[in-house]
């Protein structure tokens, strides 16, 4: 019997068992917390989440538009650029970004990059052909980078180490401009379909204090993998007086060794929402606990809407999310299935509550984001920001259909079920 196949089968069984064991929790303390709930701000402050004054975020909703903006930000940088991307590859769609960063580094600007080692196992859309990770090219360019948690055979014997992935996507420019969202520096985010890229989100805001905080997160991670250590003193805190910093953002940085912070993010949304909740979540892979939270919100009398997406770059993503449709519909949620006229996948991770609360970043509504992936989201209590996001959601709904239970049941086959289980861990 082939040893490699046996090893893969064993790992798959361990992963599924681990997932099922960890999925037995329910809504837990939500009813008790609801009775004591004061406000979103109070909830997050009591749990120690930091908040920062920012300008109103500028949102970029496609890979094409974000690519143009990030090249502008790179060009404008005078002192420093830090970048953390889950996926970084070498492709015709990413070369301009890597070359621009190398040019800035050569001019004396401090440039540092973190790329997760999942980049080594990325394939072209609807293909099994691998695309080259960015590591070799960046080394040739002389750009400072680290490989987050390099994939190794030894990690198989400690499952959390193997599965620990840095899913965050953020930029900090000159210790003052911050961009946070879901767009990678890879071929699908920026350029699939060609000329457009995924439909996604990056929010750009001016905030020296937020920049300082995110930089500290970056340094902590970077120094784990680099022989040359960075210091926060290398990125001096800037003057706070930058434009109209009248917005307040809470930062939720999730790391499995430091608590379940994405659980807190979705819990506070469940507690805060009174009327309507929009969940734009193309990677909705549900576990029992996540279903229970949806039911809890609906039982409060809230109208809950999920937007899922066609046109995933790999079939496994659609199968895993489509399997969840029945659970959502039977819980009482409305499920929209988005089909882009350009056949772009909706990779966006956005939630808007009551036209007031909003969050965007890297976190999916799935078990992995709640546990073993590193995630970074911002959360605002601001009607202007929520209205901007809802306006974009309206454009998604225009190209969506409401899925009924009969249609959803077509995706409850054994194949969809097994894919859903596997993607809880590996998606």
Describe the structure.
This protein folds into two domains: 24-50 and 251-426, Endonuclease Chain A (Endonuclease, Chain A); 55-245, Endonuclease Chain A (Endonuclease, Chain A, 2-Layer Sandwich). The chain starts with a helix and ends with a helix. It is built from 17 helices and 17 strands. Helix 1 crosses helix 17 (414-426), helix 4 (63-76) runs parallel beside helix 5 and helix 12 (315-323) crosses helix 17. The strands form two sheets. Strands 1, 6, 10, 11, 12, 13, 14, 15, 16 and 17 form a ten-stranded mixed β-sheet that branches. It has a seven-stranded mixed β-sheet with strand order 2-9-8-7-3-4-5, sandwiched between helices. It is α/β, with parallel strands linked by helices.
Strand share of the residues?
15-25%
**CATH top level label of the largest domain:** Alpha Beta
Please mark out the parts with pLDDT under 50 across 5 or more consecutive residues, or reply none: 1-10
Main beta sheet: 10 strands, mixed
CATH topology of the largest domain: Endonuclease, Chain A
* Average pLDDT, all residues: 92
Give the CATH architecture of the largest domain: 2-Layer Sandwich
Share of residues in helices? 40-55%
User: How many DSSP H or I helices?
Assistant: 17
Ends apart, CA distance between termini: 28 Å
Classified in CATH, the superfamily of the largest domain is Endonuclease Chain A
Number of strands: 17
- How many structurally independent domains? 2
Structural class: alpha/beta
* Overall geometry: globular
Give the radius of gyration. Answer: 21 Å
């Amino acid at each position: 019997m082939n040893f490699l196949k046996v090893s893969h089968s064993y790992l798959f069984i361990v992963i599924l068992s681990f997932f099922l064991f960890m999925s037995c929790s329910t809504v837990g303390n939500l009813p008790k917390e609801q009775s004591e709930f004061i406000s979103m701000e109070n909830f997050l402050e009591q749990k120690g989440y930091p908040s920062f004054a920012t300008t109103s975020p500028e949102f970029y909703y496609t890979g094409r538009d974000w690519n143009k903006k990030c090249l502008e930000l790179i060009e404008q940088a005078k002192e420093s650029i830090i970048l953390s991307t889950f996926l970084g590859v070498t492709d015709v769609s990413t070369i301009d970004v890597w070359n621009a960063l190398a040019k800035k580094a050569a001019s004396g600007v401090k440039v540092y990059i973190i790329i997760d080692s999942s980049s080594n196992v990325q394939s072209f859309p609807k293909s099994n052909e691998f695309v080259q990770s960015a590591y070799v090219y960046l080394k040739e360019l002389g750009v400072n980078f680290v490989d987050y948690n390099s994939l190794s055979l030894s990690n198989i014997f400690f499952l959390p180490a193997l599965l620990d992935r840095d899913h965050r996507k953020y930029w900090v420019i000159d210790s003052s401009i911050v961009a946070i969202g879901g767009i990678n520096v890879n071929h699908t985010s920026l350029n699939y379909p060609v000329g457009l890229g995924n439909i996604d989100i990056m929010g750009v805001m001016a905030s020296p204090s937020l920049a300082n905080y995110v930089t500290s997160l970056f340094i902590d991670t970077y120094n784990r993998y680099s022989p040359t250590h960075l210091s926060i003193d290398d990125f001096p805190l800037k003057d706070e007086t930058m434009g109209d910093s009248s917005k307040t953002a809470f930062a939720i940085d999730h790391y499995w060794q430091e608590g379940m912070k994405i659980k807190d993010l979705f819990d506070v949304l469940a507690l805060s929402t009174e009327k309507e909740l929009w969940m734009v979540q193309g990677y909705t892979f549900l576990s029992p606990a996540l279903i229970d939270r949806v039911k809890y919100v609906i039982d409060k009398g809230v109208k809950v809407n999920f937007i899922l997406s066609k046109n995933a770059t790999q079939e496994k993503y659609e199968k895993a999310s489509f399997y969840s449709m029945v659970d959502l519909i039977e819980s009482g949620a409305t499920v929209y299935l988005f089909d882009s006229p350009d056949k772009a996948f909706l990779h966006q991770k956005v939630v808007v509550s009551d036209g007031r609360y909003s969050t965007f970043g890297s976190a999916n509504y799935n078990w992995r984001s709640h546990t073993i992936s590193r995630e970074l989201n911002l959360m605002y209590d601001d009607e202007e920001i929520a209205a901007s996001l809802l306006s974009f959601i309206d454009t998604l709904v225009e190209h969506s259909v409401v899925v009924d239970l009969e249609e959803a049941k077509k995706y409850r086959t054994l194949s969809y079920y097994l894919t859903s289980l596997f993607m809880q861990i590996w998606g």
